[in-house]
Design brief:
The chain is α/β, with parallel strands linked by helices. About 30% of the residues lie in helices and about 20% in strands. It contains ten helices and ten strands. It has helices at about 10, 80-90, 115-120, 135-145, 160-170, 190-200, 220-230, 245-250, 270-275, 275-285; strands at about 40-55, 55-65, 70-75, 95-100, 105, 120-125, 205-210, 235-240, 255-260, 265-270. The strands form two sheets. The chain has a six-stranded mixed beta sheet, with helices on both faces. It binds adenosine-5'-diphosphate and magnesium ion. Magnesium ion binds near residues 82 and 83. Magnesium ion binds next to helix 2.
């Protein structure tokens, strides 16, 4: 196990204290895995990224770093380029110029979308995408079995350790009472949690969440904030969100980045960016 490894393996460990998923890797909550060189403390580096759509600059020399284990909130008005930024990180959109590095050595602009996912970047799109006709439990199980880093086990029976890991994940995403329900019957918020669980079971080294609480009820939003606060420090995460109360609840003393017209307008603690004159102007549409 790498010395960078921190996380939940204590919770999921077998009685002998070994991590639940054999092969010396942390069972869950691995911040940094093999192949990602984070010796300089950052997991992601965007440098001078520009993207144009028909001459319109959606991203304009965007430069941004995410630290290992950081929970970075990204805010900004509609059209600021937040989703385009995630599209660039995940290989869906190629930048016209600039570089994107995952750790020190992995140039993401040279990799395909599946290669980027396999390298350890998980993305939660705005709309939930779960297997509606399968149970909640089966959804997590399927996600676990499609994890490219694990031996092909699609038709194999789960080990006791794997069952334990799924149970622990269901508890984490607050769905332990719904394990045998059909995912299609869940509320919108529960589907979002399920999808987050499906991503987490694959142990992403960086998790990108695009407006995770859009369409959630207030109590679902609050529970999502609790979940992200539990994940703080165990995962490197980038969370794009409009809901300012939610951002306040998860930002803590961490950094919040404000995007505007495809570049960083301000960066700092939540109360600092909220007091920033240009940020106020942009949000008021002046
Ligand atoms: N595929 C695309 N084709 C043309 N314009 C696009 C495309 N994707 C995004 N845009 C434009 O780029 C700008 C930034 O969009 P987006 O990244 O979705 O912003 P945000 O997520 O911050 O609301 C918007 O003006 C949007 O209309
Ligand atoms: Mg968006």
């Amino acid at each position: 196990m790498s010395k960078d490894t921190i996380g939940y393996q204590a919770n999921l460990a077998d009685d002998d204290g070994k991590p639940a998923f054999g092969d010396g890797q942390a069972s869950y909550g691995r911040v940094v895995g093999d192949g990602v060189d984070t010796t300089h403390g950052a997991i992601l580096y965007l440098d001078a990224i520009s993207v144009s759509f028909d001459g319109f600059k959606a991203l304009n020399a965007l430069t941004l770093d995410i630290g290992v284990g950081e929970l970075r909130c990204i805010i900004g008005p509609n059209g600021a380029g937040k989703t385009t930024m995630m599209d660039v990180i995940t290989g869906k959109t190629r930048p016209d110029s600039g570089t994107v590095f995952f750790g020190q050595t992995i140039d993401l602009t040279k990799l395909s979308e599946p290669q980027i996912a396999r390298a350890g970047i998980g993305r939660k799109f705005q709309r939930p995408t779960v297997f509606e006709n399968h149970t909640v439990y089966e959804n997590i199980e399927l996600a676990m079995k499609t994890d490219k880093r694990v031996k092909p086990t699609l038709f194999a029976k789960l080990s006791g350790e794997q069952h334990d890991a799924i149970d622990a994940m269901l508890e984490l995403v607050k769905l332990e009472g719904s394990a045998s329900r059909s995912a299609g019957l869940l509320s919108h918020g529960q589907k979002q949690w399920l999808e987050i669980g499906m991503l987490l079971i694959q142990e992403p080294q960086l998790l990108l969440l695009d407006e995770p609480v859009a369409g959630m009820t207030d109590s679902e939003t609050q529970r999502t904030a609790e979940l992200l606060n539990e994940l703080r420090g165990k995962h490197s995460m980038m969370v794009v969100e409009h809901d300012m109360d939610f951002v306040t609840a998860i930002a803590g003393t961490g950094k919040v980045t404000v995007l505007h017209e495809g570049s960083v307008l301000a960066e700092g603690r939540m109360h600092e960016v909220q007091a920033h004159e240009r940020v106020i102007e942009v949000y008021l549409g002046r």
